[in-house]
Amino acid sequence: MTQKPVMHSAHWGAFHVQNSDDQLLIEPFRGDPDPSPLLQNFRQALNHPARVAQPMIRRGWLENGPGPDERRGADEYVAVSWEEASQRVAQELQRVGESYGPEGIFGGSYGWSSAGRFHHAQSQVHRFLNTVMGGYVRSVNSYSSGAASVLLPHIIGDMNEIARRGVSWEEIARHSEVVLAFGGLALKNSQVASGGLSEHTERGFIERAAQRGTRFISVSPLKSDLPDEAQGEWLALRPGTDAAFMLGLLAVLIAESLTDEAFLARYCVGWPQMVAYLRGEEDGIVRDAQWAAAICGVSSDIISQFARQLHGKRVLITVAHALQRAEHGEQPVWLGLVLAAALGQPGLPGGGYTYALGALGHYGKHHNLVSFPALPQGKNGIDRFIPVARIADMLLHPGTRFHYNGRQLTYPHVRLAYWAGGNPFHHHQDLARLRQAFCQLDTLIVHESAWTATARHADIVLPATMTLEREDIGGAPTDRHLVAMQPVAAPYAEARDDYTIFRDLARRLGRESAFSEGRDARDWLQHLYGQLQEKLAAHAIQTPDFSQFWQQGVLELPQVKDGGRMMRAFRDDPDAAPLPTPDGKIEIFSAVIASFGYHDCPGHPVWREPQQKPSASYPFWLIANQPASRLHSQLDFGDYSQSTKRSGREVCTLNRADAVAQAIAEGDIIELFNDRGHVLASARLTDTIMPGVVQLPTGAWYDPVDPTAARPLCRHGNPNVLTMDIATSSLTQGCSGQITVVQVRKFAGEITPVQAFTPPQ
Ligand code: PGD
């Protein structure tokens, strides 16, 4: 039966959706100039066999009770009723709470969840653990920007201010002469924004700027990081060497007196220390164009010419998230800022520095006058946390001390982890090590709509609805459309929404009213919408009542044009509008960071050799970047994601000459391997990737032939089998999963079909 189309929203776009016998007909929101093809991943998602149909308990946990267990990831599951599952979860939470307190529970529950603001799974976990369990061990920062979000406040200001409001796309289209994009501006990244993205405008802005004459330059090992509309240039660097390249550019600018000394003196602190470092006054190593050329693989002539061409132009420098998701990822982020300062550009329209432009659809956009209220998360009764990407370290080494942003902290001893809305077996590095880490827990509880690898490692799996099966409100601070997310189908099998699951658990634990405040999901939506109405009314803006909003499906919100405001005010008068840094200026040298005494992140930006470098055993760099056909691992079974695979396997891109040398042909099944494991993929040969580099996107669901192997083989193509689980630096402890080293060869073993979407036994 075909039903009426309703309005809905995802992190990758707003859309109209109609249910026709459980096949979804999806029409992008009419106001979206460049909708994302990711929308088609929903088409057959509702009843996909990978969905979790009913509560499941791992056999080993059911029979032996909670405790560390090596069978996680390789065990059978037993279907149970909701009554039994909820009873056991409540009992286990009570046991852990009484024995260890909130310190025994990890509730970081990192992950992008889905677009609806009320059913945002991570917020639901946090509210539940705070209001019912008294708190939990949390995580801070993100896998997206772990290094930058800790570094930027020391040297220029809050990351969101710099990334979201650093510059606007309008300004770029109107004023920028050069956009120097370290890591490029790939549209596959800006097609998503957490909370929702009703208008995809990056392609249009890039086209307009290029037509006016903006010179786009993408510095990256992959040509595909810049869209064709930019009519831009591609400068291929060895992966992870941007910091050396930037130091080379700075050295040329200094040597040829092309720096803006007046700007550096008035608006920055620490330029003399930077110059001394480049000249080798600290350690006798002169860092000039030749020094940089040897590291980054670009000739010193090109570095010199490049530096000269930047001088005297309105230059915008941006550094992608990807660059800081690597060992010493802080350095290119810092040096991008130093380069913009040396050119005297910060605060000029369409010039200066912006962090991660194009990395998400939020960046370079205007802000809504008021934001949609978040679900209140209650108060966490304890203050124990880890930097998010240190989860395996915490579970494997409780009680061990570690550094973070000038503090010495200790990993807590966590017994129970509660996860909803994230997929650590997608997002974390070195998956064999991660499995070992999860094996240390007493209990892992996961709410999931599908049998992701994380669900397959859980002790208790509770089936969660997809957004399409519930009411919610979609919105993001940079999206001028608030979307009524109307359900298009009843919940799949026995699935329940996270709120209902938690409300029932809260009741069993005697804290129902603290958790729900007496509201059902619809009441909460009305309550949150009412708060938005109040915020807008304070600006004398009238809004339709909830039922009218719900009926019309979309509400247009007023915005403010605030791109570049902080740096403009600072440039106009640095005394009246100082930056939120210790000196109120751009910190080329940070006395605070220097005082921490970290060798891997000293007081000014430096080049540090990464641990992971190509060797005789592992001669290729692997770039494990964001996929183009899905958001992270979400809906990997969806139509669009599947259409980009070959025989159900992920595609790995490599340089044609490298392929010939390895006797690899187009479409061959290849094996990428290193000390951590093996991954199969289908080979795609190209000339648009630097020799010596292979690229395999993240997000293919982990599908190990033997999950318990010390070096597992994933037959589907998940690169996080191969990435190394080390932090970016002691300062930030960020995720460094973007780059690793591997060997690549044609696969000679037995090829078995991908099993990632077949539920476990
Ligand atoms: P997602 O695939 O978005 O990945 O990691 P993240 O864990 O966010 O996982 C979200 C999960 O939530 C999905 O499994 C989905 O089914 C589930 N979900 C969605 N909605 C709901 C809901 O309402 N309820 C419940 N219970 N579940 C829901 C992303 C992370 O990966 C990020 S942000 C980045 S930037 C990193 N990128 C890289 C990288 O570039 N390279 C490597 N090697 N590794 C990375 N990992 C990181």
Account of the 3D structure:
It is built from 27 helices and 32 strands. The protein starts with 5 loop residues before the first strand and ends in a 15-residue tail after the last strand. It has three domains: 56-137 and 382-556, Rossmann fold, CATH 3.40.50.740; 158-364 and 563-596, Dimethylsulfoxide Reductase, domain 2, CATH 3.40.228; 620-746, Barwin-like endoglucanases. Strand 16 and strand 17 (407-410) form a beta hairpin. By secondary structure, the chain is an alpha/beta fold. 30% of the residues lie in helices and 18% in strands. The longest helix is centred in the first third of the chain and has 19 residues, at 82-100. Helix 9 crosses helix 13. The strands form nine sheets. A six-stranded mixed β-sheet has the order 5-4-20-19-18-6. A six-stranded mixed β-barrel has the order 26-30-27-29-28-32. A five-stranded parallel β-sheet has the order 10-9-8-12-13. The radius of gyration is 25 Å and the shape is globular. Bound molecules: ligand PGD. The site of ligand PGD has 35 residues, from helix 17 and strand 19.
Query: What is the topology, as strand order, of the major beta sheet?
Result: 5-4-20-19-18-6
Radius of gyration: 25 Å
- CATH topology of the largest domain, anyone? Rossmann fold
Query: Helix amount, in percent?
Result: 25-40%
Largest sheet: 6 strands, mixed
Q: How many runs of DSSP E, i.e. beta strands?
A: 32
Q: What would CATH call the architecture of the largest domain?
A: 3-Layer(aba) Sandwich
Spatial shape: globular
Number of helices: 27
The tally of domains stands at: 3
Class by alpha and beta content: alpha/beta
Strand content is: 15-25%
What is the first-to-last residue Cα distance? Answer: 33 Å
Bound molecules: ligand PGD
CATH class of the largest domain: Alpha Beta
